[in-house]
Amino acid sequence: PSPLFYPDFLSFAEEMFNLEYRGHIYAVGWVIWVVGMASLPWIAWLTRNWFTIGVITSVPGIFLFLYYRALPESPRWLVSTGHTKEAMVVLEKIAKENGNEDKVSGNKLEAMLKNMVLNQEKDTDEDDRKMGVWTLFSKFTLAKNTIMLTASW
């Protein structure tokens, strides 16, 4: 399992499943992670070749790219980037798939999203909204930590 993709999957699962199922989703996710990490020495022992190990451990990551189009974008991310209309469409689809479309009306959902946007704008100033990857290199200590973490992975 790729450590770069795994936390993103858990964040996605956190948003997409009901509160009562989140514990089970996390448990299954961590079991898969542990089995993958525990099997790595066995794979290394069986193959005894770095190239083969790289290929075998990279193949599961290919499936993430196959599901890229099938998975909806995170509603939380869409709201944080100002795409409230798209977030509303995704949330309505989630409610429909969960059988809760009668509990969430379009007006109620729109009011909730507007409230979220207002709270977000109130909590962040103009500089915070312009963050990107290069923000990791904006200060010496932040750049040093970023380089050290990247090198250690």
Quick take:
By secondary structure, this protein is mostly helical. The protein is 71% helix and 0% strand. α1 (6-16) packs antiparallel against α2, α2 runs antiparallel to α3 (50-66) and α5 packs across α6 (106-123).
Description:
- The chain is mostly helical and 153 residues long.
- The chain has 7 helices and no strands.
- Helix 1 packs antiparallel against helix 2.
- The longest helix is centred in the first third of the chain and has 29 residues.
- The relative contact order is 0.07.
- The N terminus is likely disordered.
Please give the largest β-sheet.
none
Q: Please provide the count of β strands.
A: 0
- Give the strand content: under 5%
SSE series:
HHHHHHH
- The amount of helix comes to over 70%
Mean model confidence by pLDDT: 79
What structural class do helix, strand and pairing data support?
mainly alpha
- Individual helix count: 7
Judging from the principal axes of the Cα atoms, what is the shape? extended
**Span of the ends, CA to CA:** 14 Å
Low-confidence stretches: 1-6
Please supply descriptive tags for the structure shown above:
disordered N terminus
Layout of helices and strands:
Elements (H helix, E strand, L loop, with lengths): L5 H11 L2 H29 L2 H17 L8 H6 L3 H14 L8 H18 L16 H13 L1
